[in-house]
Amino acid sequence: MKQLMKMWNPWWTEGKVPASKKRISRPETLEKILKLLDIRELICITGVRRCGKSTVMYQAIDHLIGKGVEPENILYFNLDEPFEDKSIGLLDRIFGEYIELHVPKGRKYIFLDEIQNIKDWEQWVKKFYDLYGEEIKFVLTGSNSSMLSDQLSTLLTGRMITQHVFPLSFKEYLDFEGFELKDPDIQRNEVLHYFNKYLFKGGFPEVVLEEDMDINHLRLTEYFNSILLRDIVVGRNIRESAKLIELANYSLSNVSTLLSYSKISNATGLSINSLKEYLLYLEQAYLIYQLNFFSYSVKDSISIKMPKKIYCIDNGLRNSTAFTFSADEGRLAENLVFVELKRRKLEFFYWKEKREVDFVIKGMDGALTGINCTYTDHIRQGEVNALLGFKEHFGEKVSRLVLLTKNLEKEENGISYVPLWKWVLGTR
């Protein structure tokens, strides 16, 4: 165990985090976590596997050492390894042997990667959090939202702050490509070149840094299998693993499509109850999301009965595993918008009457923004009519209408036509 610790904590001997661990910085993501390091509450970093949570941990460790924290006061441990003991006894052993090695004075920073692999970890963390007070700071990562269960929320109420990490945003993607964005309008053609790559390649850091398409396909397929097998099949003791994989493939093949439970049940052969359970597991592993119909009343029976729309965490992952037979630009563009809205922590839905509005953002004041994503400059009248119908239905509650296009930019009939690449950059 001690040798493993020394291998995973090279700063104990070298005094710094190796460059190979820090990789490329993600300021937008990192800053949110760095400002939480000085407060008492533990930090829980969540997100899909391989999205960069561990790298953010290493960058936070590098930040602490740069601020003057003694390297021996920082422990990193990867709990995703195949240890036979998955009980809190393993955590006792890790902490005990760490103290034996260094007997660190002052505040200790404990970074535990993929904490969800340890049964009842929250009880152990609470005990040490309460026992050591300001003398200990926990930074945890987890690849499954079930780790934030009701029981956990009760145990760690007032003790934990959660930060969610996504695959790279388009801004971060440009940083990884080494492209310096100065003026989007002047650099339009260059930005479009990278945006077209991002739309299909996705934002998993290792994939972005690799140019070989075959390697990326293998890598993304491995991510997909790891999410399903390690986080769901083994973690949930699923017996119908073939059905789960079929459901995952079906979901990714039908991103942005309206799907009723009965339709998915017929396609996969799963009962409605099993289907709902498996979709929940896929969501908890951050592989897919389900989008609900918009209604001001959460208990509205129409809202509950309406089909849901399914989206995937990453376009590259979707392209590598879904049964696709065409470029699917439109679906990928809409999926990208969904993930960006999640990244911005907005409350949003879809809406449909005669025609569909892809996304309805509900503001803190109840005001609504309607967004349709076309990813073309030849706009069908139906897309415009859908937004105008939405405005007519909800009246003064609608504050803005947006049509996301490929390059078309204008204001017409109360609708803002905005190029998708500009919208994801936040410049429009």
UniProtKB/TrEMBL annotation:
The record ties this protein, via Gene3D superfamilies, to: P-loop containing nucleotide triphosphate hydrolases
DUF4143 domain span: 230-374
Which positions, given as ranges, span the membrane? none
Domain AAA, residue spans: 41-174
User: InterPro entries from the xrefs?
Assistant: AAA_14, DUF4143, P-loop_NTPase
The record's PANTHER family line, in alphabetical order, gives: AAA+ ATPASE DOMAIN-CONTAINING PROTEIN (PTHR33295:SF8), ATPASE (PTHR33295)
Q: Could you tell me what this protein is called?
A: ATPase
Q: Which organism is it from?
A: Methanosarcina siciliae HI350
What does the record give as the organism's lineage?
Archaea, Methanobacteriati, Methanobacteriota, Stenosarchaea group, Methanomicrobia
